[in-house]
Amino acid sequence: MTVVAIIGRGSDEDRAIAVACAEAGANIALGTMTTEQEQEYGMHSIANEVWSIGPEQLVCVMDAGDATEAMSFAAQVWDRFGRCDLLVANHDLPATAPLDQLSADELEETLRANLAAPFLAAHAFGRLMTRQGGGHILVVAHDRPGADAGYVAAKTGVTGFARAMTDGWASRGVIVEALQGVQDGKSLATTAVERLRRVQQKNRS
User: Fold this and answer.
1) What domains sit in the chain, N to C, each tagged with a CATH number?
2) pLDDT in tens, 147-196
3) The model's pTM
4) Which DSSP symbol is given to 172?
């Protein structure tokens, strides 16, 4: 059975992705962006919905911007399911500070959540995917109208590291894709299932 990992805030987008992939026959691993109670509740609610569909599920409450915790989540997924076929890195912390009011602390928080955290996730999962012979990593680079310069810089960085990681791992079957543009739960779920089916077809061949 294929396995999909999703990292996010327990949002409606994350729910749509998880439900669609579960309905497509995948076990689901869910990781939070932060240890905030709201995100924990959101992810457990999604896990309950996945349970009602049938596949197995795993929830990890973590600080996704911490390298050790990102690696630990990946390890938990492999310990529980033995593999991961698709990672959806839906890290997103919207920021709208006016340029002349953007502080160093705000910039650091924005870059940590929207650039460093998805990089750490893609790196942790990608390394393990190379050992199993391949996988797909989908990093969501939201286009948020009105987003501040720090947010735009982070999402631009996402597209850059996705290309670099694909260049480094494609020969070992791992593709890292930055999904750009304005996204919602429906479009994200559709794309995730499409990528999952590509992996499932490859696994069967």
Assistant:
1) 3-204 (3.40.50.720)
2) 788 888 998 999 999 999 999 999 999 999 998 876 788 999 999 999 99
3) 0.95
4) G
